[in-house]
Amino acid sequence: MDDSERFDRRVGMIALAALVVGILLVLRPFVSSVLWALVLSYTTWPVFLRLRHVLHGRHALAALAMTLLLTLVIVLPVIVLGFGLGDSVAPVVDAGRRIMVEGLPDPPHWVASVPLIGAQLEIYLREMAHDSAKLMSVLADLLDPLKSWLLSGGLKLGEGLLYLVLSVLLAFFFYRDGDAVSRGLDSALTRIAGARAARLKQVAGDTVASVVYGILGTGLAQGVMAALGLWIAGVPGSLLWGTLTFFLSVVPVGPPLVWISATVWLVFQGSIGWAVFMAVWGFFGISGVDNVVKPYLISRGSRLPFILTLLGVLGGALAFGVVGVFLGPTLLALGFRLLQEWIARDSQPALLKD
Predict the structure, then answer these.
(1) Are 106 and 129 in contact (CB under 8 A)?
(2) How many CB atoms lie within 10 A of CB 108?
(3) In Å, what is the CA distance from 297 to each residue of 215, 248, 300?
(4) How open is the CA angle 46-334-153, to the nearest 5 degrees?
(5) What is the DSSP letter of 53?
(6) What's the pLDDT tens digit per position in 317-346?
(7) What is the pTM assigned to this prediction?
């Protein structure tokens, strides 16, 4: 190879690298939508195949029907939920206004009997109940960051809804051209992994499907149980707290933060019976779902360690927004499962390797 050929080859490689960088920059804002569209289309692919069979093999029509179905099942409820959250915030605001006008009630008698901090806590709560200036000062310190959080949270939810709609639109093309995409993926995996390509594809597919079913199914079940229990107990904004439970269900300590806080609020309202109900409902109903539904739905996949789940939630939310809360743990679960597969393969005797 002479100098001219080397120069041409280097220029070609630089041009190819520049093209790849340019493509990544163009697609960067839509990475979460593309990844979530892939996850949605893959996990619902069996439904698409049945629908395509009913429609006598019409790919485009079946893809359009699936897109409309995803819109009805995913996008429309989120939009309705957004309006419902607006209505749910009103009772919370009204409760806050009543506290500012009427003040806090006197603490229950049992507060003083709390070990170590009971006496100091009772004194502090009585001061808050009878000193309106101090109460207003504390509420002001709490409301200012709360306003900023709600504003940024609303913007994030709107952005997440936009990406969700885009994901559903992209899923149409993955449904329509799914067979060609699958063949291309098989070819690429065969070049990379050789004879183990089919096994790796199966492991990846089963892991993604089971984790998505487990995360979304468990989150939906816990969110519904939380909203129902809070509504029965008379806690204002039950739909808002149920939605928060849905998002917090990705981590084990998330839902208890909601129902324990509601229980404490009911106690300070003097509703001891409803507080007991909320504690029992939260422990056996809301948190109990995690021990029943999730193992069943993730039975075919690998259990992701807690620290990786937490990192997946936080990192996914920072990288991809609202959709990343579910996309992050899915990606980490996939990487973790493939790493396990690779380690298991290397630990096998040489005669058993592919």
Answers:
(1) yes
(2) 15
(3) 9, 18, 8
(4) 90
(5) H
(6) 777 766 676 777 777 877 887 787 777 765
(7) 0.62
